[in-house]
Amino acid sequence: MKYSNITKASFISRPNRFIAEVDIAGRKETVHVKNTGRCKELLVPGCEVWLNEPGTEGRKTRYDLVAVRKNNGILFNIDSQAPNKVVKEWLLKQPYDNVIPEYSYGDSRIDFYMEKISCGQEPERFLMEVKGCTLEINGVGYFPDAPTQRGVKHIRELIRARSDGFKAVLAFVIQMGGVSEVRPNVKMHPEFGDAMEEAKTAGVEIWFLPCHVEPDELVIVT
Prior knowledge:
- By secondary structure, the chain is α+β, with helices and mostly antiparallel strands.
- The chain has helices at residues 82-91, 149-163, 190-202, and strands at 6-16, 19-24, 27-33, 48-52, 64-69, 75-77, 98-105, 108-116, 124-133, 135-137, 140-143, 167-174, 182-184, 205-214, 217-220.
């Protein structure tokens, strides 16, 4: 996944979860933050950030904040829309016969439905829910960085999908370099950790999708 119109800036502050104040070559600018998570360990005053200028008419802000360099030198993509985009690009290169985003199942819209078709056999059906990981502690990824009842609900749906004959996958897109594992952040949301353990017991597969990150690019590298 590539961005166009990338601009480097320096982070100043985050008045609320939707906007940030940044410095672009000496000019103060209010920008949209494409991640409603806390990101407190990333967005610290003076850190390097990168902005995308989508050029959409009628916007309140000119730029979206999409990437940040942590004080340990690791570059993070924090665009919450990026994981589904890069997973779609990646899935289309895998040996699936059908890939359908935003698949309705139960009371939810699961991120992806996939199918493998073999001659003379019933199609092999997959449901995949995608989560983007932007929290790193000592070289390990953690999710979530804020409580997510929606995330727990999606895991419950995957567990139910297993009993309905689907192969179910919970996939973590690791939006930083040098990290290959994601653990549940039980200190932040114990229920999410419990749901993950139940999912594993039920046969839901947990996939870690490491990425190569550049200011203007996010690519799955498995």
